[in-house]
Amino acid sequence: MAKRWRYIPVIVCMLAIFGFSSRSGDQLDTILPWVQKWMPWLTDFNPMHYVAYFALGLTVAFAQGRKAATWQGFLLNVLICVLYGLTDEWHQSYVPMRSPDPLDLLHDAIGAAAAGLLVLLLFRLRNRRSSRNYTIG
């Protein structure tokens, strides 16, 4: 039962992505100038795909626990994120002034893969460091 609670951040992240995807093109155009005050280099919201799916990848890795530190866990993480990205793109086909874009799905996959690779790297570094502390020499 305790492992199921680890999926709450995944659900929250998916709901946040769904919420932003539900915004029409007009609504996003009114938000962009406000965001540009903090990030003047941002010309549109396309880079946010990397950020959103990086966060989703981290929450999926958290839900996976130690399995996230394996290549199998990494692949499952990316698969879950890409499948959610597919549903997100399909959902956008029903939102006014929005449309599905295969390039967005690629950005989603890159963000999720980056999160998964970061988790793999951190686990490997932690395991290497702890194994060095116990070597006899």
Automatic annotation (TrEMBL):
<dbReference type="Pfam" id="PF04892">
    <property type="entry name" value="VanZ"/>
</dbReference>
<dbReference type="InterPro" id="IPR006976">
    <property type="entry name" value="VanZ-like"/>
</dbReference>
<keyword id="KW-0812">Transmembrane</keyword>
<keyword id="KW-1133">Transmembrane helix</keyword>
<feature type="transmembrane region" description="Helical">
    <location>
        <begin position="68"/>
        <end position="86"/>
    </location>
</feature>
<protein>
    <submittedName>
        <fullName>VanZ family protein</fullName>
    </submittedName>
</protein>
<feature type="domain" description="VanZ-like">
    <location>
        <begin position="44"/>
        <end position="121"/>
    </location>
</feature>
<feature type="transmembrane region" description="Helical">
    <location>
        <begin position="106"/>
        <end position="123"/>
    </location>
</feature>
<keyword id="KW-0472">Membrane</keyword>
<feature type="transmembrane region" description="Helical">
    <location>
        <begin position="48"/>
        <end position="63"/>
    </location>
</feature>
